[in-house]
Amino acid sequence: MAIPPPPGPDQPPSPSPYPSYPGQPQQYPQGPYAPWPQGYSPYNRPTPVNGVAIASLVLGILCFLPALGLILGIVALVEIRKKGERGKGMAIAGSVLSAVGLALWALLLGTGGLSEAWDGFKDAAKENNSSFSLVKGDCFDSPDGSLEGFTYDVDKVPCAGEHDGEVFAAFKLPAGAYPGDDRVTEAADDKCYALEDQYAMDAWALPDEADVYYLTPTSQSWRLGDREVTCVFGSVDPYGTLTGSLRKDETTLDPDQLAYLKAAHVLNAAMDTAPDEEYVDDDLPGYRAWAGRVTDALDEQTRLLTEHRFDAAASPGVAAVVKDLRGARQEWAKAAEATDVDTFYDHYDAGSALLDADRTVAPRKALGLATTPPPYDLEGGSGGGAGDTGGAGGGDRIEA
Description:
It holds the Pfam family Septum_form. By secondary structure, the protein is α+β, with helices and mostly antiparallel strands.
């Protein structure tokens, strides 16, 4: 049994756990660092930064939820004091910036400035995502010269020169979820054609190449509040343009011209309600009802023309038109009562002859209106005559 030596300065050193050999010094483990006798790391570990202080500073800089940023700044200061963490400067800066932001928000709310700022944002979004802030009477060029497909920008140009499109109306679609491309196109097509005559009241003055197009919201601009459809005239020629304004309404017409065209539009509207069936034989009741509507329109047109006092130079021509309208009214009334197709055609032909376009050229010339009748096409909805029925056809979609 071995007895350990007594403690004291003469105690031999403890044997090394590492082997040694004669003539060689004592071996120690090799490594990048020498052994460290203490029970902690030889290098100081930095004190962690308080995460709440970081969050307070971020909210303070962004001025987003300033009340929360201020609260987080105060909480961070308390935690830093207790835990000895770093980030006191960030907590103070976040608290100060959040306090300033909170004061600004309170000021904006108290003065209505926040509401004005939001309205301004919405207006800017609308300008950039709807129909490019175009209003009735504006003319513009599209980037590629086309009014088909999608576009995100247009350039306003004077109407006197060449241009791709001319705005003649605008309206808003109902609020709610985006109805889809087809529904938007259908609504634009129906409404734009209905508004066409209010801007270009003299259909005879429309160039043959003029057609109706529209700028509509996209699903993206709809999410920003865009609900506006803008109706425009454009050229059916893919490489063509329009020149000069097509506007013929109360802003450009004299009282006599305006009275004459308003009366003519009464008959135009009735003529456009013809049955969908191409032949009278296929829908005699429908055509009789249509003839009844035309009869009523002729009565109203006659009343409007006789009540207005036209200039002496135009009065004789207008009187001749009124005489034709009264004769046509008798024939259309008989067509409305026809019991068979042949009788309907007899009165329809006689009434239509009295509404022939050539019979109105002289009074139109006296009134200073266009004197070249548009092509007549009953099924297509355009035409000309004593009622001056006429208009552009077709339609395509260009999206905002």
